[in-house]
TrEMBL record:
<keyword id="KW-0732">Signal</keyword>
<feature type="domain" description="Glycosyl hydrolase family 92 N-terminal">
    <location>
        <begin position="33"/>
        <end position="260"/>
    </location>
</feature>
<dbReference type="GO" id="GO:0030246">
    <property type="term" value="F:carbohydrate binding"/>
</dbReference>
<keyword id="KW-0106">Calcium</keyword>
<keyword id="KW-0378">Hydrolase</keyword>
<dbReference type="GO" id="GO:0000224">
    <property type="term" value="F:peptide-N4-(N-acetyl-beta-glucosaminyl)asparagine amidase activity"/>
</dbReference>
<dbReference type="Pfam" id="PF17678">
    <property type="entry name" value="Glyco_hydro_92N"/>
</dbReference>
<dbReference type="GO" id="GO:0005829">
    <property type="term" value="C:cytosol"/>
</dbReference>
<feature type="domain" description="Glycosyl hydrolase family 92">
    <location>
        <begin position="266"/>
        <end position="742"/>
    </location>
</feature>
<dbReference type="Pfam" id="PF07971">
    <property type="entry name" value="Glyco_hydro_92"/>
</dbReference>
<feature type="signal peptide">
    <location>
        <begin position="1"/>
        <end position="21"/>
    </location>
</feature>
<dbReference type="InterPro" id="IPR014718">
    <property type="entry name" value="GH-type_carb-bd"/>
</dbReference>
<dbReference type="InterPro" id="IPR005887">
    <property type="entry name" value="GH92_a_mannosidase_put"/>
</dbReference>
<feature type="region of interest" description="Disordered">
    <location>
        <begin position="745"/>
        <end position="765"/>
    </location>
</feature>
<dbReference type="GO" id="GO:0005975">
    <property type="term" value="P:carbohydrate metabolic process"/>
</dbReference>
<protein>
    <submittedName>
        <fullName>Glycoside hydrolase family 92 protein</fullName>
    </submittedName>
</protein>
<dbReference type="InterPro" id="IPR041371">
    <property type="entry name" value="GH92_N"/>
</dbReference>
Amino acid sequence: MKKIGWMLFLATYAIAPALQAQTVSKITDPVEWVNPLMGTDSKGSLSNGNTYPAIATPWGMNFWMPQTNTMGNGWAYQYSADKIRGFKQTHQPSPWINDYGQFSIMPVTGKLKFTQDERASWYSHKAETAKPYYYSVYLADADVTTEITPTERAAQFRFTFPRTDSAFVVVDAFDKGSYIKVIPKENKIIGYTTRNSGGVPENFKNYFVLVFDKPFNVAHTWNGSRLAGDTLELKAGHVGAVVGFKTGKGEKVHVKVASSFISFEQAALNLEREIGKDHFAATQQKAKAAWNKELGRILVEGGTADQVRTFYSCLYRVLLFPRKFYEYDAQNRIVHYSPYNGQVLPGYMFTDNGFWDTFRAVFPFFTLMYPELDSHIMEGLANTYKESGWLPEWASPGHRDCMIGSNSAAIIADAYLKGIRGFDINTLYEAILKNSENEGPLSSVGRKGVKYYNELGYVPYDVNVNENAARTLEYAYDDFTIYKLAVALKRPQAEIDRFAKRSQYFRNIFDPETKLMRGKNKDGKFQAPFNPFKWGDAFTEGNSWHYTWSVFHDVQGLAGLMGGREQFARMLDSVFVMAPVYDESYYGSVIHEIREMQISNMGQYAHGNQPIQHMIYLYNYAGQPWKAQYWLRQVMDKLYHAGPDGYCGDEDNGQTSAWYVFTAMGFYPVCPGTDQYVLGAPLFPKTTVTLENGKRFVIEAPGNSATNLYTQSVLLNGKPHTKNWISHEAIQQGGVMRVNMGAQPEKTRGTKEEAFPYSYSTANK
């Protein structure tokens, strides 16, 4: 290398770290910091998020995505793929739950190709642009650029074709029963898809309509792998359509598309109402504005570019689910197709959510930032109960048999106790009471093992109720939230006392010998042999070291069982000190959640799954908040970034993202159902939160940096704040929380009991 080249190399190398460390002073266009590809480099054996690029508006009824995998594959878009098979309307909340209401659109050129493998085209991420409000990709085999921009229930496509007399657009209504009709005089295609993965009534259909801005030279329908001859209308197992044009070089063909779960007429109404005569750029601008309105509610300053990208990419994920499953009829009334009884009924409906994940931070985020939306969601829950007889625990779009707990109680109680109104709380409380005494038609609905729980004070290990210790812990917490709600509703004292008593049932499966939660047999003896590193069995997607901390409402009670706060803190320390050993025998193989813990190099801390995500904050209850500040920063720095492998496990409907958003702001809702957020330490030197009531809550952290990660002191509106928590009311009133940061732990602040967050045992001495 020549001397001048070598000197230039050294200079560049020296400058590079400084460039990486440069901070972002002001955010004016937050949506441009979002990477929808975060978490998309995933597969069944290892999740880096298990996400797909959702091209959508916040909480939109319909999402769009590029489809790289075959029809029906839950990993519909994988970052490592080479080909795109179509652009799919999707309602998928998770690859494990899979999709419903899906169909795809795909441009092709040259030979008329319509099956999913024949029409597939090579593509590159170098020629791909993914934003929440806009997606573009160059399809190399077709020499076509596809662009998409969304609304809540519709979208616009723009295809840029080469010069050819053989330009086509394929519409695939998918298998399992579908219908298609081409209407050349109107440049229109209509159809419906019935493909689903469960949770739908027999009459379920997703009706769609596509309107082109160019007349068709060619029009066909197809059935399976064959063109259908001279008919332009087909109903069969797997049908679709192909329309063709002659195009000039660079000619743009526009397609406006909308859908409805109600009817073709409603789909056309959705298209007219949400797009109408708007051109592509107008729809794009509106979608971008919708995202900036919501993302701009939280503005961060002073972080690195990577931190800002990660923050807004996570916030984008928080604002996707639950999706709006309602529409506006011709009289502009809110109506919905019921995924529970198949009727079209008035009122709100939301879906695609697993409360086992999202009760922890997503819904508390809505109670903090979106009380009006949360009120609508609560109304939707009341409608679900009226239409199905049960509250949803995992809905997609109707009840699905997935996960455990009756965590709808926590979501409802948290909303009401934090002052959200405008919904039928009496109907919802009736539903909560039903849950507390009954098993449902699916194991995820109601409470599986509830008679044992209510009679013995725990769900036994040896009565063929799987994940029994986890169920006991979650039911006990849910009963705490019911107790708090019953007090607020002035219910009979006997009812209040019943749930207060049940909230302490976590004590019944605590093993004093190991100081861990452990399965217990019906005869009162602990399950043996006991391996605290065994995943599953008595627990859900975790082991005893993960689930022992699931006493959100009585951390001091748990600490007392362990022998006091010092021993409690040592047990917390142990999670990070131990090797990432595991016993997978219950599953018969290493599930992806195990692998994600193993490779994260944080001992037994399994942040890639939800049960342990609150654990680090528990140092605040042990008088050692500086340890929480340290480990929270480690998790944010090491386990998150805005790239395709940016998560350390399943993102799960916004929960793993909501953890990051809350933690970056400097606090977290350890116990929904109380009005407290437990303090960590802010990630950014300044965060400005604009609340729905118009007030602003500003978190200032001067001196914050990669090394200055410890809280030295806290001022709330200029006055010393000595608590390890901040109240919901204090945030809602607006103001400034100033967190002074330093490089060394401050070991005198937050160490005394009066600083600790809420615990049932302390509050009820």
